[in-house]
Amino acid sequence: MFRNPVQVRDARPEDAAALIAIWDDFSKRAPEGLEVSPEVETAAALARMAAEPDERLLVGVLEDRVVGTMHLRRTSVSPIHSETAIHTTHLHVLDGWRRRGVGRALFEAAVSWAEEKDTAHILAASAMNSRDVNRFMARLGLGQVAVIRGATVPALRAKLPGEAGAKARIGTQQHHKLGQVLAQRRSLRRSQSKSQ
Q1: Which terminus has fewer CB within 10 Å in the chain: N or C?
Q2: By the 8 A CB rule, do 79 and 71 touch?
């Protein structure tokens, strides 16, 4: 059986609609609160990345359709090291197109770019609940070196000490008390309607 080879290239502004579909599919598996950007915003982000020499958004194309993506950024290994690494994130291949070599082709392009940039390391982040992606990366020899966690700024602020954190905690407590009062009122109404 003849299989079309995967083509990997940099994303272009005209790929915005396809990338939104991939991101929408990805965000169903990612933490809540990640909204899909409109097409104009996505196209502007792609244009910005195209002008940045240390950042790329790759797409995997099969049968003339964008079916996968991976974000690459070249930056230091850590804040105190001058040695660089290619940081890969947002690897995602649409469900119907998996197990056809798209992810492998995207990683091959990342390795080629690392070699071109004389960069010795690749670091890959993936969604923690994506077992398939994490197994795939393990099969490629990528070991776990860190855990990335995320929160919204207001949620984190509420947990931190200080005046703003205290205000947020008080607001949360007041919201919780309001919920308790409303629950009591509903319960009281139910019991009154049963007795009538």
Answers
A1: N
A2: no
